[in-house]
Amino acid sequence: MSAPFTTGRLLVATPAIEEGVFRRSVVLVLHHGDEGAQGLVLNRPIEADIGAVLPGWEEHASRPATMFQGGPVQLDSALGLVAVPGDSPEPAGVRRLFGAVALVDLDTPPPLVAPEVAALRIFAGYAGWSAGQLEDEVDTGSWYVVDPESGDVFTDSPGGLWRRVLRRQPEPLRWVAWFPSDPELN
Length: 186
Fold this sequence. Notes:
The chain is mainly beta.
């Protein structure tokens, strides 16, 4: 395997991805192992009311308080990410993944979880790769693999996340942040 496992890191779409949910996306890798990888697109808010899908959770969601498209796989399912502060123990229905980032079981009553977490985001679907697929995509230039910062996962301005993540990288990667949306207009 040429690309290292990327659990807990960000995949930032290169300009080579020109369409679809992954265009200019920032994906948090939740798990990456020999069997494949799963992640969530962090910067695709969608016009879907959380309360209509998961009553009780909408009042606890981080801003913008809307659903996000986590990826193209199983769009009829929902995943919740929460931030567990510091070294706090995991509240009921929460499983820490890495650092402060944890998955929340959305069947858990919100009042049991909400007071114990610092942030909440709900995603429809997820991104998934079979064994070796993500490594191949990284090797062929579809993704930049970079470290996250604490505000990336629950940013209140997800529309600018792709540019912000790229701008904080060392040169020459930083320059990609100014790549035009439509290269023909360059």
